[in-house]
Amino acid sequence: MITSHFHKRWFFLRTETDRVLFASIVFSMLMVLTGIAYTGRPIFLFLVWNLFLAYIPYAVSNWVQNNPGWVEDKRKFAAAFAVWLLFVPNSFYLITDIFHLGEIERLPLWFDLVLLFSFAWNGLLLGVVSIRQMEKTTAIFFNQNLGNFFVYPVMWLNALGIYIGRYLRYNSWDIVTNPVDLASDIVRMLAHPLQFKYAWGMVFCFSLFMTLMYEVLKRLGNLLQK
Fold first, then answer.
1. What is the reported pTM?
2. Which pLDDT value is given to residue 105?
3. Is residue 9 part of a domain?
4. Terminal Cα distance for the chain, rounded
């Protein structure tokens, strides 16, 4: 009875994966609070927001995986998948926040590194776990394991989303609030690939890197379970 009440109240700590991710996120939050206390300035609060955005796709995939009715209902699944696909690049986007290393002069560089890397690590974990959950869910929905036919396109779209967010400065919700400019910039990139060779170079490298990280962590997880 107590366990059931706990799971209902703290639904986001329901599984061992939830609890491990929560502990890792708490560590990142404590690092930010320590940095604020040390400098007396509201530093790195953008990382907290970015981590919140990174958590959304995990929350969606977790919900769909634990509620079979959403998989059986095509409309619900399509809506959930669209939201998930829109926000999942935010998870891996946190990797690029390492660019901010050394910006706060009053902080020791080692502290800066641990703080930024912890957020990047949490983003990577949330992204990998979320994609794995959705990979399993789509296998149920389509009644077959899509495997790499699911992972590779998702990672490519993730990498494109990271570039769009980091360098073109669009957000996930711009697809609703500013769709014309967003679509125009994407079409320009597709129509003139040589003019955007560095952009496509980043997309290629990041998609390959994220795919490798996904496959490595997935296989390590399988090995540890044996």
1. 0.90
2. 83
3. no
4. 32
Q: pLDDT of 48-60, one tens digit each?
A: 999 999 999 999 9
Which own/partner contact pairs does 100-106 have at CB distance under 8 Å and 24+ positions apart? 100/44, 104/35, 104/39, 104/43, 104/44, 106/38, 106/39
3-state SS, 98-112, equals: HHHCCCCCCCCHHHH
Spatial contact of 163 and 186, defined as CB atoms under 8 Å apart: no
Residue ranges, the chain, pLDDT below 50: 1-2, 5-6
Structure token digits, residue 121: 């690590």
CA gap 183, 222 in Å, rounded = 40
The pLDDT score that the predictor gives to residue 2 is 45
Burial of 46 (0-12, 13-18, 19+ CB in 10 A): exposed
Q: Which residues contact 86 (CB under 8 A, 6 or more apart)?
A: 172, 175
pLDDT at 104: 86
- 119 and 47 in contact (C-beta within 8 Å)? yes
Domain count, the chain: 1
189 located within any domain: yes
| Domain extent at residue 40 | 16-225
Contact call for residues 93 and 165 (beta carbons, < 8 A): yes
Exposed e or buried b for every residue in 166-188, given b needs 16+ CB within 10 A?
beeebebeeeeeeeeebeeeeee
